[in-house]
Amino acid sequence: MGLFTMPSLGSDMESGTLAEWLVAPGDTVARGDAVAVVETQKGAIEIECFEAGTVQELKAQPGQVLAVGAPVAVILAAGEAAPEPEAAPAPAPPPAAPAPAAAPSAVERAGVGAVRASPAARLRAAELGVDLGGLRGSGPGGAIVLADVEAGGGGGTGKPASRLDEMRKAIAAAMTRAKQTIPHFYLSQTMDVQDAIDLLAVRNSEAPPEERILLGAVLLRAAALAAQKAETLNGHYTDGAFQPAAQVNPGLAVALRGGGLVAPALEDAPSMPLRETMAAMRDLVSRARAGRLTGSEMTRGTLTVSSLGGTGGEVMAGVIFPPQVALIGIGAPQLRPWVAGGRIVPRTVVTVTVAADHRVSGGRQAARFLSEFETLVSQPEAL
């Protein structure tokens, strides 16, 4: 019998609120299937099961706040029989008949309990101060679902949502602990990316908009490949020791609309060709901003890549996300006079900064990463 418990979705997570079940008793699940949606300070995250089997029992109800490790469900493995029920105690004598209840008031009849709505919709409505009675549902039987609340959230009369405030508090607390406990050091290098930009311009001129590749995909792929040559930057520091990762799963820092930040991971990014890398990035960003990330995406990162995009500051030095041991900060591209072919010419450059944990690595390893990164972006046709 497998006891499914509330997973940890980050080093700073202590508990989560069960928003809704995606399975019911009797359902068959496979390893990696999403079984529930959990609300955390980072938003709504789908949690997955790690064993195949049949859902025997749901031990928690939507709306419950559950500590990490608390029992959530029971999943029986294939061929495993359900445990015999315990003998029931002798029935107690029936209670005296209660007095007739008073008829509900008009306010009680019109309350939230009378509205058909999903648990996730009720939680979000409470955050936004939205009256569910004033919304039209698009779910089965006219039930109100999360999308209906999000669409009608602008008409709420209560206080604005506090999730982003809570997320900022969680980020601030995690980053404060990281700076206090991780001995950061930084190493930066400015490098020419004009060849990569020119190559993308040619490729994108013949591609539809949804298939065009951005410079960010080139930089993310270069970071993933370079991390294979600098193993002390790729892994986790736990229980007083460094555990190198078996593969490179770069976390992609995604700024959320209205504020906040998450860093879901691309699993085994070096195995993805450039076009697949771009598609995976689009998918992650879209689902991150819609609050539909999975638990494994939030926890399997082995280092983080944070880019300022097309505009912004020239240099970015970040704070490491524990238990990771490195963060790659990429400044916005800048047009600068540059020496190329013995001449000074205008070229587009970016500054890449490695923030690394000095308990695990030193300047030599960070310099090796930057050298490999520069080699890769100077030969973009090979990516």
From TrEMBL:
MF terms in GO: acetyltransferase activity; lipoic acid binding
Cofactor(s), by name: (R)-lipoate
An example Gene Ontology CC term for this record: cytoplasm
Keywords on record: Acyltransferase, Lipoyl, Pyruvate, Transferase
Xref: Gene3D superfamilies: 2.40.50.100, Chloramphenicol acetyltransferase-like domain (3.30.559.10), E3-binding domain (4.10.320.10)
Stored InterPro entries: 2-oxoA_DH_lipoyl-BS, 2-oxoacid_DH_actylTfrase, 2-oxoacid_DH_E2_comp, Biotin_lipoyl, CAT-like_dom_sf, E3-bd_dom_sf, PSBD, Single_hybrid_motif
Pro residues bias locations: 86-98
Residue ranges of domain Peripheral subunit-binding (PSBD) in the record: 116-153
Coiled-coil residues: none
Renumbered residue ranges of the record's region Disordered: 84-103
Enzyme Commission numbers on file: 2.3.1.-
Domain Lipoyl-binding per the UniProt entry, residue ranges: 1-76
Pfam family for this entry, one: 2-oxoacid_dh
CDD domains (alphabetical): lipoyl_domain
Family named by the database record: Belongs to the 2-oxoacid dehydrogenase family.
Subunit organization: Forms a 24-polypeptide structural core with octahedral symmetry.
Name of the protein in question: Dihydrolipoamide acetyltransferase component of pyruvate dehydrogenase complex
Species of origin: Leisingera aquaemixtae
Lineage: Bacteria, Pseudomonadati, Pseudomonadota, Alphaproteobacteria, Rhodobacterales
